[in-house]
Amino acid sequence: MCDCGKVAKISRLVPWIVVCLFVGLLGGPAAQAWGCKGHQTVAAIAEKHLTPEARQMIQKLLGENPIDAKLRRWCGNATTDLLVDASTWPDDVRNERKNGSWHYIDIPRGKHKGDLNEYCGTEGCVTRAIEEQRAILKDKSVDPLKRAEAIRYLIHFVGDMHQPLHAINNADNGGNCVPVKYFRHDPLPNPLHPEREDYSPNLHQVWDTEIVERDMEISNPFRYADELDEKFHAQTAALEAAGIHVETWAWESHERAETAVYDALPEKIGIEPDLKPQGCAENNHMGKRMFEKHLAVGEAYQNNAAKAAQDGLWQAGVRLAMILNHAAEAVN
Q: What sign does the CA torsion over 297, 279, 152, 69 have?
């Protein structure tokens, strides 16, 4: 006869056990914007808008400078499409290369315009990383391996920047310190380190993966890319005509975080002090304070968030193609 109390206790820990196994033991990233399928969707959209010259440049650089076969791939090796496969590589090496700050920019909540340099720390941020990698890719004298890596970084970072919670800071580690009940899934504390006050699900996790993958339903990144490209087809020319303005894109993503992420929550979260806590127990116990709000999101939030996520994924894909096309034009 089973010990039902013990079984129930174990079942409550399962979500965190899975997180700990993958993040702690495999060394994968704690949060990766858009998750695997989202980043792959951005790359698949971009591929539709490449010039022949850009396609040739990418295939040559990525094909002749492949990803280390021994590297543990967080998202697996599920595709032979070099551009799509490259989209998740920066998350695989971020810990080894200690460049996690390149994946986001901490624009304080409540800010709406201005120079982004003051929010880009000494270790870098996503807007600076994009510009640096663009310069590398456009320089034919640079080692081809570095240019191949620049392509992989650009594919990923343009996607990262269009995930709203990678362009805002509310002293909550990009929403990682905001526990939320997502449909029927209650937030649970980390059973191994409850003192850290981090919970799953949380706002960042929901935006990284759950919203997009729920919207995708049974689809895959290639089909989802087809669907989004068709849906926004009439807007493509205007988006391309606006040109490449990385800081403007970051501000757009920031505004999306204000409206679609925070303001859309059923209970409002105030603007916190402009702090960058190392963990959720800091900033006057941010994780616990947010947990006690008992935030719950369901169908209404999901529907609005999915629309915002679709906008971001499609814009990221088209804009990524613009960057790659411009680089190919510069070296030809």
A: negative
Pairing of β 188-189 and β 199-200: antiparallel
- How many residues are listed for the chain in this entry? 332
| C-alpha span between 198 and 226 (Å, rounded) | 36
What would the pLDDT profile of 195-238 be if each residue is shown by its tens digit?
999 999 999 999 999 999 999 999 999 999 999 999 999 999 99
313 vs 263: CA distance, rounded Å: 20
Q: What is the mean pLDDT of the chain?
A: 91
So what's the pLDDT on residue 78? 62
pTM of the model: 0.91
For 10, the 3-state DSSP assignment is helix
Amino acid identity at 51: T
Query: Is 250:127 a contact under the CB 8 Å cutoff?
Result: yes
The pLDDT tens digits of the residues spanning 10-39 come to 334 444 444 443 343 333 344 568 999 999
* Distance in angstroms between the alpha carbons of the first and the last residue of the chain: 73
Helix H segments across 67-143? 82-86, 89-97, 126-137
Instruction: State how far the Cα of 180 lies from the Cα of 20, in Å rounded to an integer.
Output: 19
- Token pair recorded at residue 331: 């070296």
Over residues 307-312, the mean pLDDT reads 98
> What is the bridge-based pairing of β-strands 199-200 and 181-182?
unpaired
In sign, the C-alpha dihedral spanning 89, 252, 310, 54 is negative
Q: Is 181 helix (H, G, I), strand (E, B) or coil?
A: strand
In the chain, the amino acid numbered 96 is E
CB 218 within 8 A of CB 31: no
Distances (CA, A) of 44 to 85, 242, 283: 10, 21, 40
* Nearest Cα residue to 92 out of 147, 28, 31: 28
